Amino acid sequence: MTDAITPAAGLPAPTRTLLLSGDNSEEKRQQLLNYFIQTWELYESLFSCLRDPRAWYTKAIPLRHPLIFYYGHTATFYINKLMAGQLIDQRLDASIEAMMAIGVDEMSWDDLDDNHYQWPDISQLQDYRNRVKNQVIAVIKTLPLTLPVSWNSPAWVILMGIEHERIHLETSSVLIRQLPVEWVQPQPHWPACPLARYQRDQVPENRLLTVAGGRVTLGKTDDTYGWDNEYGRQVHDISDFQASQMLVSNAEFLHFVQDGGYHQSRWWDDEGRGWREYTSAIMPTFWVGEPENPDGLKLRLMTEEVAMPWDWPVEVNQLEAAAFCRWKAAQTGLTVQLPSESEWYRLREAIAGDQPQWQQPPGNINLAWWASSCPVDTFRQGEFYDLVGNVWQWTSTPINGFEGFRVHPLYDDFSTPTFDGKHSLIKGGSWISTGNEALKSSRYAFRRHFFQHAGFRYVVSEHQENIKQNPYESDTMVSQYLEFQYGPSYFGVTNYARQLVSLALPHIQQHGHALDIGCATGRASFELARHFDAVTGMDYSARFIDVALQLVSGQDFRYVIATEGDLVEYRQIRLKEAGIDSITAGKVQFIQGDACNLKPQPQRYDLVLAANLLDRLRQPRRFLRDIATMISPGGVLLLSSPWTWLEDYTDRSEWLGGIRENGEALNSYQALQRLLTDEFEEIAPPQDIPFVIRETARKYQHTLAQVTLWRKR
To answer: Are residues 19 and 77 in the same domain?
Structure first.
C-alpha cells in the first residue's frame, strides 16, 4: 500500500541521524549544529499541542512528573553534561538545573511519587531554554572536533544531549496522550493518519509465516551515536519459528477482551495480575468507551479521540501483550508468545540498511508519514508488515548488557538501573521514533506495566526466555571481593587467585581433586578447574556461595563499588570475560562449610588452597589438624595469609603467631613449621605475594601475603 500514500503535509521532517565519520571536520560541525537546532525546534513544537495551563503542571499519570518538568529537563541535561564534561565552567540557573535534573523510573505500578515541587513559570522556562540553546550553539561552534567522533569526543556530549531530547520527544508525546483530551489541541504540524477501517469485518486477518532459523549477532556496528547498552557483542543461534505477519490490530485484540481476557487470572502472570487488580483494567488504556459496546469505542490519540480504527495496531503494555499470547496459545494449541530480541533481529533482516541509508523510511517511523499509527497492512517489509515503525513491539527479553558492556563516564546510570530483570525490551520504533530510536541497533526497555506507543506481534517458538530479577549487588563486602577476584588489576599487581594457583602447579603430582577453602566468590576455584578434574569451592558465607553459583550458571553478575561519598561505579562480570568457559566452570562444586568444623569427605584432595584464611578463623589449629586428614599422600597444602591477627575473628589464645612465647617472639611462619612438621614437609621457601583490594576510587589496601607450600607425607 506504500506506493498509494503520501506523507502528511506539514509534518516536521527530522534530519537523518548524524554519521560519526567524515572527511571534513567543519562540514561535520555544521551538520552537528543543524541536527541540534532541528531537534530543539521539533521538541518545542510538540508542546504547542498543550491548550490548558493545567496540562503543563498536572501529572498525566502519578508515576511521572508533569510536562513542565520534561520541557525543562532536556535543556538542563545539556548544561549538566557540559559541566560534567568540563566543556563549560558556569551554570545558567543552578535552581532549575537541580530541580529538573533527574526524571522518574517508577519502581512499581503502585509506587506513587508524591513529591511536590515549586515549578517555574512557563515563560521563565522558555527564557531558560533560549539561553541554553544559545549556550549549546556557542559550544558547537568552538569545540575541538576531529573525525570520526568518538566516545570521548566533546561532540559526543552534544550528541548525547540531542539523542536524549529525541527520547523525551517520544515519551512526552505519550504523556500528552494521557492528559484529559480537553487540555490538548490538534495541530496541523502533528497530523493523524486519515487511513482506517471502521468496520471490524474489513480488517485483514493476521496469519503466521515461517521464519528460518540461523545465527544472529547482536551489538552495534553502524557509524552513528549509540547508548552504552548497544555496544558489545552477543551471539544467538535461533531455531526455526513462526511469526504473525502483522502487528496485532485493535480488531484482533478485541477477541481477547470479549472472551473475558481481562477477567480471567489464568492468562496473567503474578506481575500482570497485580497490575490488573490494582488498575481495574478491563481493556487497553487508550480505548475509550465500554468494551460491551465495541461499535461505540473510540481511540485516544495524542491530541484527540477518534472513532476506533480497528485496523490500527493495538497499544498495550507488556503484561497485556503476554496475557493475550497465553490466551492465543490456549485457543490454538500452539506455543504462542512474544518474540525474543534475537528473534526480532532475525525478522528485521528482511529490511535492508538502516536509517542513515534509507532514501525513504520503509515504514511509519521517523515522523516520515503521520503523527499517529496507521493500518497494520500499510507498510509491507518483505513478507511481513511493520517490522519497523507504526508502534514499538514488546519482546520477552529483559534488557541486559552485551559482552564487553561498559558505561559512559558522563551517563553511568543510563542503562544500569534497568539491568534488573524487570525492564523488557521494545524493538522496531514507532511513528515518532527518530534519531537513535529509529536505528536497528537501538535498545530501549521499560517496566512491563509501562505505556509507550507500543504494541506487539506474536511468534510460535520453543524459545524460553530466562527472566530473573537481577539487581546490582550493593553489599560492600561482596562487591569488594568481586572487584578483588574478577576486576581489573591495580598498580600492576597480578590477579591474586591466578598468582596462587601458578605457585602451586609446579608441585602438583596428581591433578584429580582440589579444594579451595575460603573461596569467597570463587575465582581461585575456577582457576584450579583449568588444571584439575574436579574442584570443590567452600566458604562459610552462603552469600558468597550464591554469587559463585550464579556465575557457574552462565549468568552475569552486577555490583556497585564506591568511588567517593554517595557516588558509585557499576560493574558487570561474566566468567567468559575472565577466559573461563562453561566446561571449566562445570568442574567446580560450590558448597557452604565451616573451616573449623569440617565434615568427613569421601575423597582425598591433591591440592588444598587456603588463601587468606588462617588469620580469620576462630580455631586455626583445629583447621590445620582436620585438613591434614583430607589431603592425599603426596598432595599439596598452600597457605597464604598477611597474618593480620585480630581479636574480632580469633581469640588471642588461638593466635598461631604474632605473640611472645615465654618472652620470645613467635611469628606465624615459625608456628606453622612447628604445627605441620609431623605430617608435612615444606617444599618451597615462603614468599610474599602482593594483592590489592579497592575500597574507593582513591583508597586501596595494598597487602603482602606470606605464601607457604607443604607436601603431605
So the answer is: yes
